[in-house]
Structure formats: structure tokens, C-alpha cells
Amino acid sequence: MREEEKKRSSQDSSFKRFMKKRWAFPAIYIASAAIILTGVLWYQSSDNATDTDSYDYEATDITGKKYDEPALEVNRAMENFVMPVKDPDAAVIQKQFYDYDGKAEEQEAALVFYNNTYHPNTGIDITTKDGETFDVLAALSGKVTKVEEDSLLGNVIEVEHDKGIVTQYQSVTEMNVEVGDQVEQGDALAKAGESLFNEEAGVHVHFEIRKDGMPVNPLDYFNKPLSSLQELDTTDKANAEENSGATEENDEAAPSEDKSAEESGKTEDEGSAEEPADENAGNTEEDESADTEEDPAGTSEDEGQTDDQVEEDTATESTDA
């Protein structure tokens, strides 16, 4: 009995000595916190494992399955539009872009004469000082969406850079690309050539930038990123072109309307001038008929007077006899 009591007392004393040490309580706290944190992490990991089993990865949760649009490369968005030639300093712009808001002399200089008709230039025509052919380069990285042989425009290459934004290269020969090719900025697409549409330009490349089908002035976007064109609203531009077209049609229709009005006025004047003549003619007929009616009466009276005189003369002669 005493031995057990001694053991207990010795255990209590050793425990008390352990608890009296400075590092005892911090050690107990740290160990307890570690145990609790381990239990929490284990519980969360087991819960996440059960949740992932409920996801349907065959549906539209995977990136790329919900949207069919191709991703736009970051470096392409940071690229700036450049002239489609190797040496821009040696390039010459033979004909400028037709700006509907520009000055009259600038608009006149941007007209292309073909088939006895003037057409607004929807891009810029680039030549060289020596008039020789040159390499036509990609103004911006993108995907080739059109390669067509066209005798009038001198062949056409179209490159898409973003949804609704394309560049066109017309009047080219020796085309090096096909539809579906990915081209980088500066890649050679073709050689500059000639076209029937603008024979005056000689050997050149007709370069266009279009957004949503509407041409924009390439000179306004050279050395500017693609994002500057993405922010452009082409609705106002389309309305301006429609209004200008309606104005031209009204101007053409106005002379014909004035002419018809003048002719109608002349016709009315002639009609009013003819009416007095008709009235005079009617008066003349009435006068003639009146005279004709009066003349027979007078004639008959004269004849009656002549017969009376003859009878009187005959009676006088018989009396004398």
C-alpha cells in the first residue's frame, strides 16, 4: 500500500516538475494546434475529392468547349499596322483613300476613273519611285481567308486578324499563300502587279483595311495597334456614305425635275396663248354667221323694192300711151 502511494507521489511530483518548466505549456499548445490543423486539412481534402467526382467533364465545363471563337494571340494584339512593303521610305502612295468627310480637292484626287465612271478609292495604291515590282508583305499577323484570281482587280489576297477586321491586298501576282495559312507580320504574300481597274497606277499594290465590311483609311492606323481599330464604330461612317449617296442621287434628279417643270410651264403658257386665238376664231365665225343672216334679208328687201319700181314704171308708160 505504501509502495503504491510512493509511486503515485513520485509520478505526481515528476508531472509537477515537468509542468513547471518554461517550455512545457508552449510545447503543449503547439502540439495541440498541429493536431487540430492536420485534422481540418484532412477533412477538406476528403471533401474536395468527393465533390470532383460529381463534375461532368464531358459537358461545357472544360475550357474551349463552350466557345468556338479562336483565341486572339497576345503578341498579335500588341502588333502595330505597318505598310505592306519592305522599305516604307521608298514607297509612293499613287492614290489616296477617298474620305467622305475630306476636302473637295482631296476627294477629287482619290477618285479612280474606270469604264467612263469615277469610283471612290476604298484603299491606298502603293508604288515605288522606280516603278518596278516589289514584295507585298503582311501588314499584320493573321489567317489567310481569301486568295482569288481577278483580272479586273489584279488578284486579291485577304487576311483576317480579328473578328470583323481584315486586310486586303489587290493587284498582286506570284501569290505565295493559300487559304487557311497562318502568316506573320512581314511575311511575303505576293508581288506587286497591275490591274485593269486602275491602269494609271502601273505596277502597284492596292491595300485596304476593313472592319465589319467597311473600309477605313489605312493611313490613320499605320503604327497603331489592332486594339485602336477594335474600338472604332463603323455605324456613323456607313450612315455618312449612305447620306452622301442619297445627296448625289438627289443632285442628279434635280435637273431633270427642273427641266420637266420648265416644260410643263411652257406647255401651260402655250395653252393659255392658244385660248385667245380660239376665242377670236369663235368671234369671227359668229360675226360671219351674223352677217350672212343679215345679208339675205337685205338682199330680199332690195329685190322687193326693185320689183315695185318696175311695176310703177310699167304703169306710167301705159298711162302715157
Number of DSSP-assigned strands: 13
Computed Rg: 53 Å
Number of helices: 6
Oligomer: single chain
Helix % is 40-55%
Structural class: alpha+beta
Mean pLDDT: 74
Low-pLDDT windows of residues: 59-66, 246-306, 314-321
The largest sheet, given as strand count, sense and whether it forms a barrel, is: 8 strands, antiparallel
Write the element-wise H/E pattern from the N-terminal end onward: HHHEHEEEEEEEEEEEEHH
Indicate the overall shape.
rod-shaped
Ends: how far apart? Answer: 227 Å
Keywords:
alpha+beta; three-stranded antiparallel β-sheet; eight-stranded antiparallel β-sheet; 6 helices; 19% strand; 321 residues
Give a short synopsis of this structure.
With 321 residues, the protein is α+β, with helices and mostly antiparallel strands. The chain contains 6 helices and 13 strands.
Describe this structure in words.
- By secondary structure, the protein is α+β, with helices and mostly antiparallel strands.
- Helices cover 46% and strands 19% of the residues.
- It is built from 6 helices and 13 strands.
- Strands 1, 4, 6, 7, 8, 10, 12 and 13 form an 8-stranded antiparallel β-sheet that branches. A 3-stranded antiparallel β-sheet has the order 5-11-9, with no helix packed on it.
- The radius of gyration is 53 Å and the shape is rod-shaped.
- The C terminus is likely disordered.
